[in-house]
Write a structure and sequence with these properties.
Length: about 475
C-alpha cells in the first residue's frame, strides 16, 4: 500500500503557536518520546518521503510499527488542536458548553446545568447557531422534568414547545437557502458561465424562486447572506455586472454589520470580496477595485484570517484579481514571479484555481504580444486540466490556442485546432452556433495572404463575428482579442 502523506500535511498546516502548544503538552510526560522525534523530522522535511523516514530511524524498534506510530501522532496532534482551539470560535465554545451540561447533568447538578444552558443559549441566539439552539432547547425540556418532580412550575411545556417550533422554522428556512446555494455552486463548478442546457434550465428555475426574489422570506441573517450571494452570482453569470455589484455590495455590508458572520463564514466573506472586486474591474472602476484590493490584502493582519486554509484561499483570490486588474487597467505584472509564488503553494491549491491562473496568465501574455509564453499556459490547461471542470474556460482556452497560432503564423496547426474546437462545440449540449461562426471567420482569416489580413482586421471582421458577450469570461476574452490582435 502506498504511504499516505496525511500526517505530513497536518504537521505542515500547524502555525508556530500550535506547534509550541503541542510540544508543551508533549513535555508534560517524562522521557524521550518517539512520536516527538517523528514530529520533528516531518517538520523539517520539504515533502513527504517515507524511505527517508525509515533511513533516519534505521535499526530503531518503533520503526517496525511505523504506521501505528504515525496514526498515534496524528491523533495526538488533533487532540492538542482541540485543546488549543477549545475557545477560539463560538462554535467550539458552544460545543464545550453542551459537553459541560452533559457532565453536570450526570452529576445531578441541575441548577449549574441551567446556568450553563442560559449562557450558551444567549450566545447561540446572538449568532444564529440554530442547530445548537435546538439541542439547548432539548436539554431545557429534560431539565423541566426535573423541575416538575421538585414542584417547580416556573416554565410551561407550551413555552418551550413554541420556542422549539420557531427554531425548527428558522432551520428549515436556512436549509432551503442552502439547497439553492449548493445547486448554484454545483452548476458553476462544472459548466462555469456556459452550463449545459439542463443546468441552464435549473439556473433559470432557481432565479425564479420566491426565496431569492422576496427578501422578507429570508428569516435570518444567515439565510439572507446566502440569498444575496446567490443573486449576485447569477447576475454575474448573466453578464449583468452592475446588478451583481449591487448584490455583492449589499452582502459585504451585511458581513461588516455582523462581525460574527464574517468570523464564522470566512470563505464566503472572501468570495464576496473577490466577486465584488471582479465586478469593479469589469466596470473599469480602477479606484474602486484598488480600494477593495487593498482591503483584501490587509486581512492578513486580522487573527481570524490567520488559519492556513483561509490564508491560502485569500492568496488565490489576490493573485487572480491581480492579473485581471493588469488586463483591464493596462498594468504591468511580473508574471514569472507571480506564477512562481503560486507554484510554492501548489500542494494546497485546487484544480480549478490552477486552471484559472494558467488561463488568466495566458490572456495577459497574449494581450502583451508574448505568444510563446501564452502558449505555454494554454498547453498546460489543454494537456493537464480536468476536462469536467469549468467547461466555459476549457472552450475559451481552445479559442485562445487558435488565436496564438494565428499570430505565430502556424497555418497548419491553426487548421487542425479549428477542426478540433468546432468538433468540441458541436458535441456540447447547448447551442454554440455563434461560437462556430466565429471559428469559421478565423478559418477565413487563416487562409488570407499577409497583406490581406491587415485589411481584414481593420474592417473589424473578426470582432464583428465574435459571439455576443453573455458573461464575465466572454468579456475578458473579447478584451484580450482587441488588445492582442486588433
Amino acid at each position: 500500500m502506498k504511504p499516505t502523506h496525511d500526517l505530513f500535511d497536518l504537521v505542515h498546516s500547524l502555525t508556530k503557536s500550535e506547534k509550541r502548544f503541542f510540544k508543551l503538552q508533549s513535555s508534560l510526560q517524562a522521557g524521550e518520546k518517539n512520536y516527538v522525534r517523528l514530529f520533528d523530522l516531518l517538520e523539517k522535511m520539504d515533502h513527504y518521503n517515507e524511505d527517508f523516514v525509515k533511513e533516519t530511524f534505521r535499526g530503531e524498534l518503533f520503526l517496525k510499527h511505523l504506521p501505528s506510530e504515525k496514526n498515534h501522532l496524528f491523533k495526538l496532534i488533533l487532540k492538542s488542536l482541540r485543546s488549543y482551539h477549545g475557545e477560539s470560535s463560538v462554535r467550539s465554545v458552544l460545543q464545550q458548553s453542551l459537553k459541560n451540561v452533559d457532565i453536570l447533568h450526570k452529576k445531578g447538578l441541575f441548577e449549574e446545568c441551567k446556568k450553563e444552558l442560559k449562557r450558551a443559549k444567549k450566545l447561540a441566539l446572538s449568532q444564529e447557531f440554530f442547530y445548537f439552539l435546538f439541542e439547548i432547547i432539548s436539554w431545557q425540556k429534560t431539565l423541566l422534568e426535573e423541575d416538575y418532580e421538585n414542584g417547580e412550575f416556573t416554565q410551561s411545556v407550551d413555552e418551550i414547545a413554541e420556542e422549539e417550533a420557531h427554531v425548527l422554522l428558522l432551520l428549515q428556512n436556512l436549509a432551503q437557502y442552502q439547497v439553492i446555494y449548493g445547486k448554484v455552486n454545483a452548476i458553476f463548478r462544472s459548466g462555469g458561465f456556459t452550463p449545459s442546457k439542463v443546468h441552464e434550465d435549473m439556473l433559470r428555475e432557481i432565479l425564479s424562486s420566491k426565496l431569492l426574489d422576496d427578501s422578507s422570506l429570508a428569516k435570518s441573517i444567515r439565510s439572507n447572506c446566502i440569498r444575496l450571494y446567490s443573486l449576485g452570482f447569477c447576475a454575474l453569470a448573466n453578464s449583468n455586472i452592475e446588478l451583481a455589484s449591487d448584490h455583492f455590495t449589499d452582502l459585504l455590508s451585511l458581513f461588516e454589520e455582523n462581525e460574527w458572520l464574517r468570523e464564522d463564514k470566512g470563505k464566503r466573506y472572501l468570495r464576496t470580496l473577490g466577486q465584488l472586486l471582479t465586478c469593479r474591474v469589469l466596470l473599469n472602476d480602477r479606484a474602486g477595485a484598488t480600494e477593495l484590493f487593498k482591503k483584501l490584502d490587509s486581512l492578513d493582519e486580522l487573527e481570524e484570517f490567520q488559519s492556513p486554509d483561509l490564508n491560502t484561499f485569500r492568496f488565490r483570490i489576490l493573485k487572480q484579481i491581480q492579473v485581471e486588474m493588469a488586463l483591464m487597467f493596462d498594468q504591468k505584472i511580473q508574471s514569472d514571479e507571480l506564477f512562481a509564488s503560486i507554484q510554492k503553494t501548489k500542494n494546497v491549491l485546487s484544480k480549478e484555481f490552477e486552471m484559472m491562473m494558467h488561463y488568466r496568465l495566458a490572456l495577459y501574455e497574449f494581450s502583451c504580444g508574448f505568444h510563446q509564453r501564452a502558449l505555454k499556459h494554454v498547453n498546460e490547461i489543454i494537456n493537464n486540466s480536468d476536462k469536467e471542470l469549468r467547461q466555459d474556460i476549457y472552450g475559451h482556452v481552445r479559442v485562445l490556442n487558435i488565436l496564438i497560432h494565428l499570430c505565430l503564423g502556424n497555418t497548419d496547426l491553426v487548421e487542425y485546432a479549428l477542426k478540433s474546437t468546432i468538433r468540441f462545440y458541436t458535441q456540447r449540449e447547448r447551442d454554440h452556433d455563434a461560437d462556430i461562426h466565429f471559428l469559421k471567420t478565423l478559418r477565413l482569416y487563416n487562409k488570407l495572404m499577409p497583406f490581406e489580413k491587415s485589411d481584414f482586421l481593420k474592417e473589424g471582421k473578426i470582432m464583428n463575428a465574435f459571439p455576443s458577450v453573455k458573461n464575465m469570461e466572454d468579456r475578458f476574452l473579447e478584451l484580450v482579442i482587441k488588445k492582442g490582435m486588433i
